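Bit of a strange request maybe. I'm writing a small parser for structure token strings and I need a real example to test against, not something I typed by hand. Could someone generate the tokens for this chain?
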Amino acid sequence: MLLDQRGIRVTVVDFVRFTWLNKHVDREIEDDDDDDDDAKEEEVLDYDDIPPIQTVEYGDRHFTNPTIWIGVLPDTLSGGVAHDSSKDIRALLDSLQIQDIDIAYRESIYKPLPGHGPALFPTVENRDSLKDVIDNVSVALSLPIAGRKTTMQGTLGPYFHVGEKLYAITVRHNVFLLNGDNEEYHYHDSAPMKEVMVMGTPAFTNYLASIKALIGTCIDTVASLEKMITTFGGRVRDGTDVGESQRMLNECEVELASTRIKIENLKDFFVNIRRNWSKPKDRVIGFVRWAPPIGVGVAPHRYTCDLCVIELYKDKFKSMIGNVLSLGPEMSESKLKSLIYERVDVPSDFKYPDNGLLRLRGMLTADQVNNPTSLNLEGDRVRRVLKRGFTTNTTVGTLTRFMSFVRQYFRTGNVESLEVAIFSHEHDTGTFSKGGDSGSLIVSTIGEFVALLTGGTNKGTDASDITYGTLFEWVWDLVKAEFPGANLHFDNLQQFLADVA
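Reply from user aminoacidic:
Good idea to test on real output. This should exercise your parser:
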């Protein structure tokens, strides 16, 4: 390739477009005569008659040309070589009569995203006391996992079954050391099991700490509510703004009672988790049944193969509900909708599911990935995707229409592959993924399987500037070849779980 001719140690090649908001300078505004036009205010009286309001940005949004964004190993590229290489690429584009394409370089390293760091619980209702803490130990997708004898922390992907046996998919590097052997692994009854558990020791310790922190926050809320009740109660007795004071008093008393119940439920839950889940053996949920070698540029599509199948102990999953993704408590319904809907003139198919549980059905093909159907605020065709991972929880990103080229460097040689690329949402400050999110299932906003998260690129941070995954359609083909009769759907859960009920 052209980059190799210049000796450039390329790691990834992405096709992107950059955008930013140039905010307007703060200024005074002239009086608006419309403020005095009472007649206009009379035109619309009912909320339902008010037309949709398009969100606006205070400033001018700037867009670059489509850009070939080339990642190189740190400290390996000089400005002169980059300039000469850009001329090579420009000449190639000119020969193809392709214009208005920018070329940019960045230091970037592709790496997988391992983290360091009794029966599972059923999912709960939105207003349940345990909603904020249940996901780490419930049957919804994206359980935080680790090998019992390894330190890597990752995320468990989707469930499937073959007959009466229950399995789940994740990435191999979550449970196998990257510097270990890379042979195909099959479990044999005579060999020790490679056990997989919910949360490694650091993750479990942090989980306990998070429950205690939430209890502390609730205790502070009780103290604040008690002060407010005293204040509003005094106003009612004194006859000060009695109607409003009584309303606020009633609301505070209801919230106080609810918060006290939540504290007691959280305390009971904390004791339960600490007593019954603290030993690693009690958090084991299954063992590795099959793991093909990690491969990149695998024929026929040149995708990355980073895959592992876990056979799960069904008695740990008595409450399972199939492939259902919890959208979690961290992001409000309104926030999630704002990141997905965006344009009011292009209705989204996304409907916030009951109790934040998105049931998965369907699978995007490579052709569908290349042809998105929705528009962003600027009118560009994009496809929003979701994932829930151990580290970053629920995030919304943008699935690109183009596969990204990825190269990894090893002492034994270089390996190259094509990856599904996901950008962080342009209107959200967070990153789409961090270390510990590998193995997460990336899905469309209507619950279609899209990709298995395998890694990302960055330099010197745990966050990924671009997240990469392997098209799940291909992953599933590999699984079905190894597990004939494999099925992602659980049409009769009661019958499937009858032997452990």
